[in-house]
Structures are given as structure tokens and as C-alpha cells.
Design a protein that fits this description.
Arc Repressor Mutant, subunit A; 2 domains; five-stranded parallel sheet; Rossmann fold; disordered N terminus; 11 strands; alpha/beta; 246 residues
């Protein structure tokens, strides 16, 4: 049996009746964790269902597919990665993996198996809620309520498709803007070059050189970074891909 470590930080309920932004399925073999996560996400406006095993999760997906699955990697009787691989054979529902194992190899494996995000314990309720909303917006399952992303010195307006740095307009090509806006729309989320090809270019490495992503990241950095060799905003995650640092 796997030893469980690092618990998520609970948050007090805010007491209001939420409006529903989507349906979530939490897969975790610990009832108290499922209950706590359900409460905090219901307070954020989601409808939440629970499953304790991969079989229960598959049954729930077949009966009434959710908008997103939150899956614990360290299930006591089965490997969450195996559950994810099984799920991906029949469904493209967004999945956020939750685990106490934060090794790079685990994160890479989760992304390769088709996870949309990977959250390492301990994490705050605010972080989890933000990641859920980000994945839902990115996959088109929740409307994007934020047309202007304001990061202080840097603002990205998705309506006018304009980028401003220190108050000045930054000239970008359509794909440079799409890439920056996509990364900024999911702060701190790491994306592989293949994922960026799929999401920004609607392509894949089978059809397009993944170096296209590398070149566009280089161009974006030249336009928004004070020191492109040591970027502030668009960071490289060695061996994985890129992320936007808010």
C-alpha cells in the first residue's frame, strides 16, 4: 500500500449558494479528501461528483461525463497513471492530476499520458480552483470571463489582441500573440512543445516541426523581456517545455 504524504490545505466555506460553472469528478480513495475538495470546489460554483476507484470513475464517465476530472495519482489499490491511461482510450475529458510526488519524471509521464495539468501537494484551495478554471477555459468548457489579463507591467487584451508593456504597445504577429495569450491564460502551467503545437497552431509534430514553437518563444521573449536570455515572463522548464510566470 502506498504511503500517503502532503495533504492539501483546506479552506473555510464561504456560505453562499454557488452558481454552477461546470461538473467535476474527484477520484480519490480517501473519503475525507474527497469531501474537503468537494466543499471547496462547490463554494467556487462547481457541481461535484466523487469516485474512490478507477472502476467507479469509468462508470461515472459512462453514465454522465463531467467537464473535468481531478485524479489522485497515489490511489491505494491502483496507480492513478494507469487509471488515466485507461480513461484516455475512451475520453478526452480534461484531467488534472493531484499527487504528493513532485519529481520531474512523474510530471512528464502525466503530461505524456494526456493530463491537462499536474498539481503537487501541498497546494492551496485558491491554486486548485484557479487551475480548474484555467483548464476549463483553455479546453472551451467554461467561458473566459477575463478579456484583459493584467500582470502589472504587462497586460494582454484578448479583445483588441494588443499587448502592452510598461504602458507601451508591443507589436506582435498573430501567432506570437496567440502563443503569449495562451501561456498567460494558464499561469505557471507547463506546456510541452507538442501541446503548444496542438493548442496554438492546431497542428502536431507529425505535420509541423516543433522547432516552430521554440522560434516563436524566442521572438516573444525579444519583444517583452528585458533580458531574453534570462526571461521574466516566459520561462523554460528544462526537459518539459514552457510556462508563463505571472
Amino acid at each position: 500500500m502506498t504511503t500517503r504524504t502532503n495533504r492539501v490545505e483546506a479552506a473555510p466555506r464561504n456560505g453562499y449558494a454557488p452558481s454552477l460553472f461546470g461538473r467535476l469528478l474527484i477520484v480519490d480513495d480517501e473519503a475525507d479528501v474527497r469531501s474537503m475538495l468537494s466543499r471547496l470546489l462547490e463554494d467556487e460554483g462547481y457541481s461535484v461528483e466523487q469516485a474512490s476507484t478507477g472502476a467507479e470513475a469509468s462508470a461515472a464517465l459512462a453514465l454522465r461525463p463531467p467537464d473535468l476530472v481531478i485524479l489522485d495519482v497515489m490511489l491505494s489499490t491502483e496507480d492513478g497513471f494507469d487509471v488515466l491511461a485507461t480513461l484516455r482510450r475512451t475520453s478526452n475529458v480534461p484531467v488534472i492530476l493531484v499527487t504528493g510526488r513532485g519529481r520531474e519524471a512523474d510530471r512528464v509521464l502525466g503530461l505524456k499520458l494526456g493530463a491537462d495539468d499536474y498539481v503537487v501537494k501541498p497546494f492551496s484551495s485558491a491554486e486548485l480552483a484557479a487551475r480548474v478554471g484555467s483548464v476549463l477555459r483553455r479546453t472551451g468548457r467554461r467561458p473566459d470571463l477575463d478579456d484583459v489579463m493584467d500582470f502589472g507591467r504587462l497586460t494582454i487584451d484578448t479583445r483588441s489582441r494588443e499587448v502592452h508593456l510598461d504602458g507601451g504597445l508591443v507589436e506582435t504577429t498573430p501567432k506570437e500573440f496567440d502563443l503569449l495569450a495562451f501561456l498567460a491564460g494558464s499561469p505557471r502551467q507547463v506546456f510541452t512543445r507538442d501541446q503548444l503545437l496542438a493548442q496554438v497552431w492546431s497542428s502536431s509534430s507529425a505535420w509541423q516541426d516543433a522547432g516552430t514553437v521554440t522560434e516563436h518563444v524566442r521572438r516573444v521573449r525579444r519583444k517583452i523581456e528585458a533580458d531574453p536570455e534570462n526571461p521574466r515572463w516566459v520561462r523554460t522548464v528544462r526537459g518539459v517545455g514552457y510556462r508563463f510566470e505571472p
